[in-house]
Amino acid sequence: MGEEEREIKTDGFEPKIIGFTCNWCTYAAADLAGTSRMKYPANIRLIRLMCSSRVDPLFVLKTLLRGADGVFIGGCHPGECHYITGNLYARRRYSMTKKLLETAGIDPRRVRMEWISAAEGLKFAATMKGFIEEIKELGPGPFNPAGTKKEVKE
Amino acid sequence: MKGDMYFASASDEEILKRGEYGGAVTALLKFALESKVVDAVLGVRKRSGNNRYDGVLDLITDPEEVKECAGSLHCAPVNIARNIKEYLDGAKQMKIAVPCKPCDARAIVEIAKRKQIDRDNVLLVGLNCTGTLSPVSAKEMLISEYEVEPGDVVMEDIDEVDGTWKLTVTLSDGTKKEKDLEELEQKGYGRRENCRRCDVNIPRMADIACGKWGVKEGEKQSFIEVCSDTGTEFMDKAVESDAIKVEKPGGDTIAERKKKDEDAIELANKCKEEYLKELREMSLEDRLAYWMRYFDRCIKCFGCRDACPICYCKKCYLEPDRGYVPGGEVPPDRLFPFTRLAHVADSCVNCGQCQDACPAEIPLTRLYTMLNDELSPMFEYVPGMDVEAVPPLIAAKEEEETLIDDINLFLAKGGEGE
Ligand SMILES: Cc1cc2nc3c(=O)[nH]c(=O)nc-3n(C[C@H](O)[C@H](O)[C@H](O)COP(=O)(O)OP(=O)(O)OC[C@H]3O[C@@H](n4cnc5c(N)ncnc54)[C@H](O)[C@@H]3O)c2cc1C
Ligand code: FES
Fold first, then answer.
1. B297, CA 20 to 30 Å: which among A132, B69, B99, B131?
2. Complex confidence, ipTM
3. Which contiguous run of DSSP H or E holds residue B125?
């Protein structure tokens, strides 16, 4: 599909990002960022899970296919997962998912994973800022109805 | 011993005659039944008469019947692994000897890791393979390109002759007709698409690997490489009981076999390069549009899922009650093809069964192999090669925990990507 068929609205585009965050670390970090009144854009909606390993690649795919512009996954640093190795599996699945997206033609930069411990409120805010910036640059996700003049299927 | 090599042929005169290359495989399968090494043989045979385009699986318990399977059917890509899993309870109740091509053996290994086939209960008699043909297009090709009556063909053969790959058919009166394989494939005939890309020609993940490579032209023999301890024990017994006659192959024949294998791998790489180039070079947008166009052809018949030999969920994610793919929609929600892709990402063995089954002709195996090719170097894992190798998505290693904080640990090892 050529450039002309797909108009990307970038000005005023406020991306919708879904974050899957681990209860023990990244979710707490988001809390900390909030209570410490650190600023980060409000484009992200968090879904709290008990461990980053709960993130089935299908969650990521479903989120993107239902129109989200980006997906964030937050887990405990290696060695700090409450369930010992959950985050290591999560990293492997995340790596697979990125390649899967790329193979099918979806920009893998729309999915990002980061280790953010409960104490890293600052890192959480900075990561969100950076990720949202990147998604703004990428424009609306391929399945975000707002981003397409024409349906992708032609 | 693992790695031992033999020239082998059937001791039985009738089997020697009926076998494709000396009948060692038939003799071994018959011996496995007679000696009670296995309870049954799962052979591939013509359903009836000389119809080489309708190969079926046959579960055999009478040793005499094994002879009916003699011969190599190149136009019968039967789904061996899925059938063992689905209809023979994963060989959990009985021991089965199975002649199998590399993709069949790899699928068996991969599903055995997921505990749905008992690898200890299947004796894998591997057959070298450089590809199979889809029966319908093969018949068309025989009529239009070879100008022969498909029913008159008694043998097919793919081999390299003086540096070019030929597909040769032998007719009932003994005449042979050969054509350039790559030229046929340019026209859309020849081997199945997945076979063209396949670079596993010798099934060393089986218990023994049998083929004609290395055997002198015209000799009624097969070259056998022993690939496991089970294979060693079985071969020793078979030789001792005089089911097969064996000779030691000379260094030159071993080298010749190796050379054939290398050349076949080179051809596979070349095909892969050619066929996937366009997709690899596409922009992401074009690539997505390419796949969406195909996905929109889907009529949700579930054929790909039902044919996939390594599809492993007990309760399928594609069913509406799982909350991903809503029921009653055609084409289905895109999560349907994406879920399939995610579920075979690390385990697809490129057997092509999904694509064969697809009535909408979606090139599914192409998509799966492309992803698998990206993941293999990342996780240092090739599906179906070693039953002990743990699938990469459930195989976190200790050092990943203690030493490595890098979130891009694996991605950094992948291909160049975008
Ligand atoms: C599709 C195919 C391609 C092959 N390509 C090569 C090659 O490129 N190089 C090489 O060295 N050898 C190849 N072989 C192996 C070779 O043709 C002989 O099968 C092998 O040398 C054993 O000979 P035999 O006389 O002992 O076998 P036989 O005694 O004739 O027994 C053959 C056995 O193969 C089984 N069989 C037949 N068709 C199929 C099928 N489609 N799928 C699974 N099992 C089947 C039968 O059930 C039978 O048990 C191929 C075999 C097949 C089936
Ligand atoms: S508990 Fe936080 S990633 Fe597992």
1. B131
2. 0.93
3. strand B122-127
